[in-house]
Amino acid sequence: MKSPKPVLSLIQREILVGGMLGDCSIYRAKVTHNARLYVQQGAVHSEYLNHLYSVFQNLCSSGPKLYVSLDKRSNTTYKALRFNTHSLPCFNYYREVFYPEGIKIVPANIKELLTARGLAYWAMDNGYKDRGNFRFATESFSRDDVLLLLAVLKENFSLDCSLNTVKSTQYRIYVKTNSMVQFRALVSPYFLPSMLYKLQ
């Protein structure tokens, strides 16, 4: 008798959604194959990456590995930690909604997927402090995707945010000053100690 395929716990699903709005990726070698989660962070954020590994460890065969690369233009060595899960059916849905055409987007149903925990992991993964306020680095998403995220931040969490144009086709989300107390209250319970500097 075959053992049942692993399923994602509620916490894993919430963290996965937040990570996918940031730098996490889900790959599928072929349409007929199951998908797998890839997580990478600079070595400076090793505590955060190791924490993410602990969240998904039951779905992995090995722990994080260190990768070293050289940027020849600047002669700078870059160190990153990375891990990936097994290819599993439980990741297929997230591959389909985040990559309907093969390129990562914001899913149309992100309002139903994004929780306060997911918001916190998105903030840890891809947000940064900006003079006492907070920005999400959403440059990889289209303007319509970022506008959808702005609407969800308002509807789900009552956060007033604005769209900032970085370049003609790149946009960031800025948490307005009047929403910073609410934002910190929402995400700080889930923040790792090494990431709290982003909220100060």
TrEMBL record:
Q: What top-level branch of life does the organism fall under?
A: Eukaryota
| Full protein name | LAGLIDADG homing endonuclease
Which PANTHER family does the entry link to?
PENTATRICOPEPTIDE REPEAT-CONTAINING PROTEIN OTP51, CHLOROPLASTIC
GO molecular-function terms, A-Z = endonuclease activity
Q: Where's the Homing endonuclease LAGLIDADG domain?
A: 13-183
| GO biological process terms on file | Group II intron splicing; mRNA cis splicing, via spliceosome
Q: Which UniProt keywords apply?
A: Endonuclease, Hydrolase, Mitochondrion, Nuclease
InterPro entries listed in its UniProt record: Chloro/Mito_RNA_Process, Homing_endonucl, LAGLIDADG_dom
